[in-house]
Design a protein that fits this description.
alpha+beta, three-stranded antiparallel beta sheet, 6 helices, about 40% helix
């Protein structure tokens, strides 16, 4: 399985790793079939995501997609972050092998879960803003920790 130079760089040198102790939103997603677990922390000032950090347990692609996703939303408005798709994460990494596409899906879901938590903490129902949060990764039956 071949990875792009960008995937390898974000795996070997992940950006924004860690926790934000006073995070405004925390989202955790995972998949028991593949073992990948992503936790995203966001700090919001006004309507802008001023800081974002992640902790990921999983394969190299899971770490790389988490790293890239944080880079893509840091400094962006909440509306811009909500438009982040797994396809955009994959494109920014110059692609992923087909069996690792689920990692980019989890990265998108982790960001949305953190934004959902942010709205819940503000007493706002996030469903109409962020959408229903589901974890459907049944297509991941072929993935393994590598």
């Amino acid at each position: 399985m071949a990875y792009s130079e960008k995937v390898m760089d974000h795996f070997a040198n992940p950006r924004n790793v860690g926790e934000i102790p006073d995070a405004d939103g925390i989202g955790e997603v995972g998949n028991s079939k593949c073992g990948d677990i992503m936790k995203m922390y966001i700090k919001v000032d006004g309507n802008v995501i001023t800081d974002v950090k992640f902790k990921t347990f999983g394969c190299g692609a899971a770490i790389a997609t988490s790293s890239m996703a944080t880079e893509l939303i840091k400094g962006k408005t909440i509306d811009e972050a909500l438009k982040l798709t797994n396809k955009a994460v994959m494109e920014a990494l110059d692609g992923l092998p087909p069996v690792k596409v689920h990692c980019s899906v989890l990265a998108e879901q982790a960001i949305k879960a953190a934004l959902s938590d942010y709205y819940k903490r503000k007493g706002i129902d996030p469903t109409h803003i962020v959408g229903a949060q589901t974890e459907d990764c049944d297509h991941c039956t072929s993935c393994t920790l590598d």
